[in-house]
Amino acid sequence: MGTHTVDVDKNNFDTIVIEGSKQAPVVVDFWAPWCAPCRALGPVLEKVADEYDGRFTLAKVNSDDNQEIAARYGVRGIPSVKAFIGGEVVDEFTGALPESGVRAFIERVVPSPSEELRDSAARVYAQTRDVQQALDLLSQAEKLDPKNEDARIDRVAILMDAGRHDEARKLIESLSPLARMDERVNALQARLDLAQGAAEAPSEAVLKERIARDENDLEARLQLAHQYVARQDYRSALDQLLEVVRRDRTYGKDVARKTMLKVFELLGNQGELVSEFRKKLATVMN
């Protein structure tokens, strides 16, 4: 049996598989001694587990001796292989696969070293808000896998949080055309554009004073909307933008409507607020 392979039964299944998979993936091999395909698959799984050197644990369950566990997870034929992450089954296959198929399965459920660094960066940033440490980890992830554009997108988000907008914009421009079509990138691009508008606008007090003097000061309303977005008061921002559309649909080459669409992108194009203002915008446009 391999170094990273362990026999599991009803006494230690919850500890090794359920709790263990909350720390690192656990791949469970349901097998039986009489099963010829099981005897062919087992050594392949053990070989791959040793090569991954602890990045996942291979847990072997004799289904004849542990029928309750097999029934709990719907095992109807063996070999049956199930991958657990966070205490839940995330992927599985039944029957003996060739080594190439086993490797493809493991690659789907076990993060690459680059992805592990990306996960570490996310944890560091969530727990400490340490911008530089998170960026350093993501840079390491990119060096290990230059094609890992998710790591680059993570860097954009952190740079945006840090107010380093020029760096964030250059990084977005370096993404592949396919990556730039990602919804997350669209939201970050919208956030970047709106942040630039807020940076260029006068103070909120000045803008409100201008609107109080002249309700048709549409530029002040547009700039005030950017200020509201910057402090994440999206309802107030959308109210101002809708008012610009209502007063002059063509103002600034349709800039208010286009800015509303950017706010929708920033909000993931879903949710009650987006739905509410899509309907209001449609009413005003008709």
Written overview of the protein:
This protein has 286 residues and is an alpha/beta fold. It folds into three domains: 5-109, Glutaredoxin (3-Layer(aba) Sandwich); 113-181, Tetratricopeptide repeat domain (Serine Threonine Protein Phosphatase 5, Tetratricopeptide repeat, Alpha Horseshoe), CATH 1.25.40.10; 198-285, Alpha Horseshoe (Serine Threonine Protein Phosphatase 5, Tetratricopeptide repeat). The chain has 14 helices and five strands. The chain has helices at residues 13-19, 36-52, 67-72, 99-109, 113-128, 131-144, 149-161, 165-173, 183-200, 204-213, 218-230, 234-247, 255-266, 272-285; strands at residues 5-7, 26-31, 57-62, 80-85, 88-94. A five-stranded mixed sheet has the order 1-3-2-4-5, sandwiched between helices. A hairpin with a 2-residue loop joins β4 (80-85) and β5 (88-94). α6 packs antiparallel against α7 (149-161). It is elongated and about 85 Å long. The chain starts with a strand and ends with a helix.
